[in-house]
Amino acid sequence: MEERPETELISIPATPRVSTPEILTPTGQRSPRPPSKEAKSSTAWTPTSFISPRFLSPIGTPMKRVLINMKGYLEEVGHLTKLNPQDAWLPITESRNGNAHYAAFHNLNAGIGFQALVLPVAFAFLGWSWGILSLTIAYCWQLYTLWILVQLHEAVPGKRYNRYVELAEAAFGERLGVWLAVFPTVYLSAGTATALILIGGETMKLFFQIVCGPLCSSNPLTTVEWYLVFTSLCIVLSQLPNLNSIAGLSLIGAVTAITYSTMVWVLSVSQQRPPTISYEPLSMPSASSSVFSVMNALGIVAFAFRGHNLVLEIQSTMPSTFKHPAHVPMWRGAKVAYFFIAACLFPVAIGGYWAYGNLMPSGGMLNAIYAFHSHDIPRGLLAITFLLVVFNCLSSFQIYSMPVFDSFEASYTSRTNRPCSIWVRSGFRVFYGFVNFFIGVALPFLSSLAGLLGGLTLPVTFAYPCFMWVLIKKPTKFSFNWYFHWTLGWLGIAFSLAFSIGGIWSLVNSGLKLKFFKPS
Question: Is-annotated flag, keyword Acetylation (predicted)?
Fold first, then answer.
């Protein structure tokens, strides 16, 4: 066979059975742009479309066999793309050996967390009917937008949108996409990591007090020192190199989240309810106060469904070919994960509200158990519950921080044109951990902003994916598909504004200041 020019992208072997190149070298573009008009007009073309029976008919048997072999290879690879070596250096796309199990672990770890334990607080303002209805609608809505993101990961042949911001750039344009997507995704990554430091440190302090009891020393660690201990543990675990390498931690985080969520509602419903319990929604002094409180409660429900900023990143860790696209195992794992998420969120919300009604403390389920049943529940069970929360916070910190690590290293590799060394990578992660620690110390109320931040980040989950579907898939104008996605998208934007206003009002008036644990 003749030598091929050096400018060719890949070599074509003579046999069709070869390993998928994408497992060895990532093929996703770093910053894909919307397809040009010429590309749109030729979307039906594939690399094998020219190898037709009509084309093969006058060709002899040996040449026909070579072309058939080449056709099988191209169908296995799926598409010819320009290889980008930088993706092989970055934490999210460094390893492409993910599978459906990893997808389930990561989605569970990202989708269940401390925000589920404050859902009964929202029910105290919404009541039974509106509480269950809003939680059900939010769950179905976010599950549909999750499916949209999974499908859009490889919406353009030959390109993989490996990060949420990349897909936003492809849909909205480079400048507008960055402007719309960077702030909410940065909060959901870095802001959630800071909140996890606050919650994890306070939980470790309570765990120590429960286990130690009256034998504690006269000079225990302060809350800030417990923050530092938790941050140090997070930094040690963050040295794992890439997203696939933390699959074991995600499994631990998922198991612990399911376990402590189940323990919390089972312990609550198994105890005697307070005698003055009532299921009437909390009344406010004025009609405007009631409206803002309801908006803030709906923001809490929206904040319970997070993790969409990690969907594309999780899917990019999987190999993808024409015959075996990545969206198949990703959606299979996501369905399993969100079954368990529903099995955790709905019992916590319904069981917690049934057990405490409108007497639910603003801190959520753990505060309620501590306030009403601290003398009825054995100390061992309370200690195990708090320890599981600590493990879950440690695991969630890793997956929510990975996009930030990826951004740090992308900036470094683009400037130096070489991968990060171990020392540079470790330095980035130590720096990031302590920045979050200092932000948490300076703003200790950050974990109290669930309603406000649920409204601010709602477009990432409920609105942007609908707009992206219309702008990239381009359904027929004024069709049902077109109207449906535009309506969902603008409803998401409207809800985001309303919930954000409700959260701001709640903070200003101290009507619903969400603090996960009581100050001690």
Answer: no
Q: How far is CA 212 from CA 209, 215, 313, 377, 379, in A?
A: 5, 6, 41, 17, 10
CA torsion, points 317, 322, 328, 330, in degrees to nearest 10?
10
Assigned token pair, 5? 């020019």
Per-residue pLDDT, 3: 46
CB proximity list for 258: less than 8 A, separation 6 or greater: 108, 112, 340, 343, 344
Note the helical H segments in 153-246: 164-172, 174-186, 192-212, 223-237
Question: What global pTM score does this model have?
Answer: 0.80
Please list, in sequence order, all residues whose beta carbon lies within 8 angstroms of the beta carbon of residue 78, skipping any fewer than 6 positions away. Answer: 157, 320, 321, 322, 323, 325
Half-sphere exposure of 68 (CA within 13 A, CB side): 10
Question: pLDDT tens digit string along 125-162?
Answer: 999 999 999 999 999 999 999 999 999 998 887 788 99
Give the mean pLDDT of 59-87.
Answer: 58
* Residue 163 near residue 406, CB atoms below 8 Å: yes
Which of 451, 449, 447, 136 lies closest to 293 in space, CA to CA?
Answer: 451
**DSSP count for the chain of H helices, then E strands:** 21, 0
pLDDT in tens, 443-471: 766 545 666 777 778 899 999 999 999 99
Secondary structure (DSSP) of 384-442: HHHHHHHHHHHHHHHHHHHHHHHHHHHHHHHHHSSPPPHHHHHHHHHHHHHHHHHHHHH
Contact 103, 340 (CB under 8 A): no
Q: Where are the domains of the chain?
A: 93-399+434-508
Mean pLDDT of the chain: 81
Contact between 337 and 345 under an 8 Å Cβ cutoff? The reply is: no
Integer Cα distance of 123 and 310 in angstroms: 28
Task: Report the C-alpha dihedral over residues 443, 444, 447, 452, rounded to 10 degrees.
Answer: -40
Q: Quick one: pLDDT at residue 70?
A: 61
Handedness of CA 71, 73, 79, 82 (dihedral sign): negative
Work out the end-to-end distance of the chain between its first and last CA atoms, rounded to an integer number of angstroms.
77
- Estimate to the nearest angstrom the gap between the alpha carbon of 54 and the chain centroid: 49
How distant is the alpha carbon of residue 425 from its chain centre? Answer: 23
* DSSP classification of residue 31: S
Residue environment code for 304-335, b if the CB has 16+ CB neighbours within 10 A, otherwise e: bbbbbbbbbbbbbbbbbbeeebbbebbbebbb
CA–CA distance, 288 with 180 (Å, rounded to integer): 30
- 170-196, pLDDT tens digit by residue? 999 989 999 998 888 887 788 888 889
DSSP state of 222: P
DSSP-assigned letters across all residues of 81-144: ----GGGGGSTTTS-----HHHHHHHHHHHHSSGGGGGHHHHHHHHHHHHHHHHHHHHHHHHHH
